[in-house]
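Researcher: We plan to redesign the surface later, but first we want a full-length starting point. Tokens attached.
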């Protein structure tokens, strides 16, 4: 039988058409699959975006409620203060008192029914608000206006956790994170004892605390090492007494570590006596301390004694000391010794505040600056009666940077008061300054009207003695010039120096009260407040 060529070619053409159809079908299926995937991705994204929008809307709703509660709390509390009416508030606003505003919400796995829509927020729920994840909360606030506290009903108390107070509601309304609900409140001297047993947790004062109960024997035993967080909230710890001349690192705390945080504390009428490293707040501190006020007396039989800290290498801001200090060596109104960190907007002043050292290195703010790392002292001041033997200064007794490689910056500071006693190296601002020239020392925009003693070797209106291989950077610093003949002060404000190029400009008592006298201060003038009757003070005071 013969072979028909047309049949063979026809079959081949059919096979080619079949193959093309199969490939076309495969492409179509792939296209459909890709389309389905894209639609699924878009739908998933839209769903997630919708859930996120719901979560954020929920968070905003809670914030609005918190804002309302905050305003209502303030209004009713003002009413209480004016009328003396100590009633509790439970949803005073008519808009949320009606029955149709009852909300049924879940919390902790239990269905709870409350009126008024006031929310209780646990720490976990606060984190949910911040992250924007779905949130279901329920609860009620009752505010006791005789104390300003938010207190709970028994049916609202979950897992024994504390309820937020007015300030927490206000923080939420501002979009801030309120204190965690595992914050431990301190209400009594006994709570302070418990605090001492667990110094790594988060605490806040809830009332003024009278520490007189611990004043027998050696008095309060310092909390050895603090690594937690403490918010005094403006309440006072009164009448703390330590009477142990051999106690090293004496104060409310022995040591405050670098990761610790302390704020809003008032120590009133404290009386602390110890050995080496003594201060009202702590013997030694490398943590962060802000907005604290201290009054009383601190004494030391040894070295490193300060109104607030024995030794400091942390971050301090808005600390006010009205503490009289009496120690042996390295004595200061803020700290006996500072080895680095930041001291911003801190002051030592008050009626009859005295800083007494039986030996050398005594300063209105700091006795000894000996940097182990960079140090900035800014917008700070001292006004006290100061006593020492040598290296005595209105702000700093001795800056010892002889072996330092670090940066030291002292700017926008002033010293007032009197150096009542010094035998050698007394300065209205710094008693003595030593440097090998490797440290970068910058002293700018400062002044002093602290009076120096008449009978003293190396006494200067600004610095008593400078011993270094290279001069510090000095810009726009002034001192009040009295009678040069009577006080035997050099015109350059330095008692003696290995570098005669260092100069601090003198001003007369009348000129130092005038803003126009402070040449070069235009860029920092916002930090100062001038009056025609007195020398300038800092704007934050």
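Model: Full-length starting sequence:
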């Amino acid at each position: 039988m013969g072979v028909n060529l047309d049949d063979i070619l026809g079959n081949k053409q059919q096979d080619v058409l079949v193959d093309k159809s199969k490939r076309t079908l495969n492409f179509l299926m792939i296209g459909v699959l890709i389309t389905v995937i894209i639609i699924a991705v878009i739908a998933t994204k839209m769903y997630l975006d919708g859930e996120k929008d719901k979560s954020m809307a929920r968070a905003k709703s809670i914030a609005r409620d918190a804002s309302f509660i905050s305003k209502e709390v303030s209004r009713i509390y003002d009413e209480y203060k004016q009328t003396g009416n100590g009633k509790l508030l439970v949803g005073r606003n008519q808009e949320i008192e009606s029955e149709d505003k009852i909300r049924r919400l879940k919390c902790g796995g239990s269905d709870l029914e409350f009126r008024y829509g006031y929310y209780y927020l646990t720490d976990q729920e606060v984190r949910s608000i911040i992250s924007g994840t779905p949130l279901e909360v329920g609860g009620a606030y009752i505010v006791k206006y005789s104390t300003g506290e938010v207190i709970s009903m028994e049916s609202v108390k979950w897992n024994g956790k504390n309820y937020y107070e007015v300030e927490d509601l206000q923080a939420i309304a501002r979009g801030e994170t309120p204190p965690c609900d595992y914050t431990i409140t301190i209400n009594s001297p006994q709570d302070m004892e418990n605090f001492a047993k667990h110094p790594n947790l988060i605490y806040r004062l809830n009332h003024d605390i009278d520490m007189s109960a611990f004043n027998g024997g050696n008095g309060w035993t310092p909390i050895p090492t603090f690594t937690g967080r403490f918010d005094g909230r403006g309440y006072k710890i009164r009448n703390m007494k330590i009477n142990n001349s051999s106690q090293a690192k004496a104060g409310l705390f022995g040591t405050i570590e670098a990761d610790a945080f302390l704020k809003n504390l008032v120590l009133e009428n404290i009386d602390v006596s110890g050995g080496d490293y003594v201060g009202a707040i702590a013997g030694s501190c490398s943590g962060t301390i802000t907005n604290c006020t201290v009054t009383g007396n601190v004494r030391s039989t040894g070295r490193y004694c300060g109104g607030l800290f024995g030794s400091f290498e942390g971050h301090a801001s808005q600390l006010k000391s009205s503490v009289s200090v009496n120690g042996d060596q390295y004595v200061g109104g803020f700290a006996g010794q500072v080895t680095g960190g930041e001291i911003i907007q801190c002051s030592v002043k008050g009626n009859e505040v005295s800083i007494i050292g039986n030996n050398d290195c005594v300063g209105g703010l700091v006795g000894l600056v000996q940097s182990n790392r960079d140090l900035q002292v800014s917008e700070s001041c001292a006004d006290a009666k100061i006593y020492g033997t040598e290296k005595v200064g209105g702000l700093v007794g001795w800056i010892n940077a002889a072996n330092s490689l670090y940066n030291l910056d002292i700017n926008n500071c002033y010293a007032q008061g009197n150096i009542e006693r010094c035998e050698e190296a007394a300065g209205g601002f710094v008693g003595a300054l030593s440097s090998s020239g490797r440290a970068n020392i910058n002293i700018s925009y400062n002044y002093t009207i602290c009076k120096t003693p008449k009978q003293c070797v190396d006494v200067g209106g600004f610095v008593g003695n400078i011993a270094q291989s290279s001069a510090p950077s000095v810009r726009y610093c002034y001192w009040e010039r009295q009678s040069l003949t009577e006080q035997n002060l050099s015109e350059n404000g330095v008692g003696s120096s290995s570098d005669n190029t260092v100069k601090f400009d003198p001003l007369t008592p009348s000129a130092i009260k005038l803003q126009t006298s402070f040449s070069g201060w235009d860029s920092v003038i916002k930090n100062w407040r001038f009056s025609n009757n007195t020398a300038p003070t800092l704007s934050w005071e």
